[in-house]
Design a protein that fits this description.
With 115 residues, the protein is mostly beta strands. The protein has one helix at 23-26; strands at residues 12-14, 19-21, 40-43, 51-57, 66-68, 75-84, 87-92, 96-101, 105-112. It has a single domain (12-112), classed as SH3 type barrels (Roll). The structure holds zinc ion.
Length: 115
Amino acid sequence: MAKSVPHISEEYYCNDCNDYKDFLDVNTNWKCPICGNYVQIKIVIGNTIDQSCFRIPVSELNSNDIVLLHRNADFNEVLGITNFGDKVFLNIKEYGSLKMNKDDTILKLNGGWYH
Ligand SMILES: [Zn+2]
């Protein structure tokens, strides 16, 4: 459940190339094939404003990052990160602890979607 999977509504945009990207061009590492930066991923949740996220490996998360665990949930803040072998234990506000593999991906909030 924790691993971030693509959703049919997602759109992908590279801020540096100022261009939309195709799913098949970004779905291996969620980076732009041209410039190598993470592509913005449009997240549509209910009737709220569309949000821009990056899909990153859990190992690249930092405390205070805002993440989306589930499409039907809210964005929550990462309060703490503990590494344990190839696992990562996240302490997430209003959710609790979550064990993930380091190479699992997670949606990190970037901001509003303005494209
Ligand atoms: Zn690019």
